[in-house]
Amino acid sequence: MRPRVKRQIMTGSRFNGSEDFVSNSNVVVPNDLSAFWMPFTANRQFKKAPRMFVAAKDMHYTTSDGRQVLDGTAGLWCVNAGHARPKIVEAIAKQAAELDYAPAFQMGHPKAFELANRIVDIAPKGLDHVLFTNSGSESVETALKVALAYHRVKGDGARSRLIGRERGYHGVNFGGISVGGIVTNRKMFGTLLTGVDHMPHTHNLSKNAFSKGLPEHGVDLADELERIVTLHDASTIAAVIVEPVAGSTGVLIPPAGYLKRLREITKKHGILLIFDEVITGFGRLGTPFGADYFGVTPDIMVTAKGLTNGVIPMGAVLVSSEIHDAFMDGPEHVIEFFHGYTYSGNPVASAAGLATLETYKDEDLLTRGAALAPVWQDALHSLKGEPHVIDIRNIGLVGAIELEPIAGSPTKRAFSAFLKCFEDGYLIRTTGDIIAMSPPLIISESQIGELIDGVRSALRSIA
Ligand SMILES: Cc1ncc(COP(=O)(O)O)c(C=O)c1O
């Protein structure tokens, strides 16, 4: 038997070295952080100097040492209505007491159907059916499987290739990392799915730096899809998946006209277009979905995050009637699509989703970003000329500040900015040497100013 690892007592200034630490807000924080292998986190760095949130309300988190931190990232791009919103909190508590769980297969409960209807109501016209999942990653896998199976049920099973894009992020499961284009997320995991190809990404600093809104240059990059179609032949390609705005690799905003061109090319060749709207969905761009912003309707739309305001894990994949109806064939007692999760349409998640959509509606949050976007844009671009800044870009309530990397230490500069901001009471997010921000859609104009000034001050103080 391996010897038990000696339990380590945390020694950071915010922790007192006893068994458990009671924070300023009376929340018990464990002193031993070794068991939890944290996701996408520098575990050793974190555990030496932990950053713990113990409460949240509206635009602010409370840290374990009792400080208020302004949320510049809506958690992880998901808390679009702000934190601890009463309708959502009440709906979850009520649902858990009334019907905690119902089997997802061959049984139903009303709220899942109601939520699917409400999602279809706000979705782009033509996306009329919803498959529920528990995360963005699961939504992506679901969408890819629907696409493959759709061609197969139509008798076109040779269409098995999937096309993604460099610097795309589609979650962490095997389908998602295969079509995704982030080397660190792919290189450790073998050969991934076969039959996948990638279009080039659209980020072009030399031509588009400091663009406000859609970059001017790069629509022709959509034509790379024609090159890929020529290489493989359209008859072998099932679907193309892209994020309307690539979020996780640093807010890569599509050049003007690019998504429309992708739609034209996919349609021409009978290839399904999948929009991964895990980030762009639910008001982030100032429209309900990215599809609305760009005036381009995909065949399949992948969502999660903002669907439940991040409170309960849930995702939804929307598909056209044409796709759905293709499966509704054969004997009626036979399952039409062999896919689903134990928690697809979970009652508590459904209740959270319904209350979230109501909150968005009550407060016009799905379009509020459009009104705030000019203020957001001006505030962000006021950082031009600050130390290390080589690009600023924005769309809706999303913004990115790209920093010149420290020679030989990529990512370090942006991470220092992140740490400094946290210390000063601002939550930002970094990816590589890019600072990405996507505040809750309830942010006020003065809070936008405060957040940007926090970033400005961090940029001035880091090396
Ligand atoms: C575009 C996109 N797709 C998929 C995902 C994966 O979502 P999850 O982390 O809920 O699995 C994310 C997460 O950030 C995302 O941004």
Quickly count the helices. Answer: 16
Write down the domain tally. 2
* Residue-averaged pLDDT: 95
End-to-end separation in angstroms reads 47 Å
The appropriate CATH architecture of the largest domain is 3-Layer(aba) Sandwich
Radius of gyration: 23 Å
- In CATH's first tier, which class of the largest domain applies? Alpha Beta
Q: Give me the count of strands.
A: 17
By secondary-structure content and strand pairing, the structural class works out as alpha/beta
Low-confidence segments: 1-18
Salient structural properties:
463 residues; alpha/beta; Aspartate Aminotransferase, domain 1; Aspartate Aminotransferase, domain 2; 35% helix; disordered N terminus; binds pyridoxal-5'-phosphate
Briefly, what is this?
By secondary structure, the chain is of the alpha/beta class. The protein is built from 16 helices and 17 strands.
What does this structure look like?
By secondary structure, this protein is an alpha/beta fold. The protein has two domains: 127 residues, Aspartate Aminotransferase, domain 1 (Alpha-Beta Complex); 277 residues, 3-Layer(aba) Sandwich (Aspartate Aminotransferase, domain 2), CATH 3.40.640. It is 35% helix and 17% strand. The protein contains 16 helices and 17 strands. The strands form four sheets. It has a seven-stranded mixed β-sheet, with helices on both faces. It has a four-stranded mixed β-sheet with strand order 3-4-5-15. A four-stranded antiparallel β-sheet has the order 13-14-17-16, with helices on one face. The N terminus is likely disordered. The structure holds pyridoxal-5'-phosphate. The site of pyridoxal-5'-phosphate has 14 residues, from α5.
